Amino acid sequence: AQSVAQPEDQVNVAEGNPLTVKCTYSVSGNPYLFWYVQYPNRGLQFLLKYITGDNLVKGSYGFEAEFNKSQTSFHLKKPSALVSDSALYFCAVSPYMEYGNKLVFGAGTILRVKS
Amino acid sequence: NAGVTQTPKFRVLKTGQSMTLLCAQDMNHEYMYWYRQDPGMGLRLIHYSVGEGTTAKGEVPDGYNVSRLKKQNFLLGLESAAPSQTSVYFCASSTLPQGNLRTEAFFGQGTRLTVV
Q: Dihedral of the CA atoms A23, B93, B44, B78 (nearest 10)?
């Protein structure tokens, strides 16, 4: 069965410092991987996805993610954090052979950026 | 551009009552989904639909029913609400995959449901 693990419930970083939010996955076949962000009392917003090709994926708001097949990881990164990046971040996987574009989510990681 | 709209945004139910959550999307998407979000558990798929007139069970379908009579609407029903169904419910939609390329989902703003 496919699964996603986000090992950190919360990540704290100072404004201007680089940030990393970790994600590992378990899935049969090739993975389709996604990152979403949720601001308080809002729905989820798409940040970026890995489908195929370059292992470094660039997305919205200056975020990027690195796909590592051998470590089954898809960590979210940003070179310089902003206070406005504070939110709940979800990693998700869409299994390769499954019909319907369904997503399996991790539990989420709260990112707090302090000024 | 409204995207995905959920109605209502908040609701309090008594145990045993029924209700229907409505999701509407204006992006002509084929696929629609209902997820529930619980603390520490991320989002879990309840039911989904791959086209008008079709529905299928997700990871946690018990206690819920769905219908997709029109392409733009996806209804989630609770026939007899239980406290365990207290959650935040999200509707989402997505286009057909572009060849082998998966497309991202667009989410509504959520419905906060409390069952007392």
A: 170
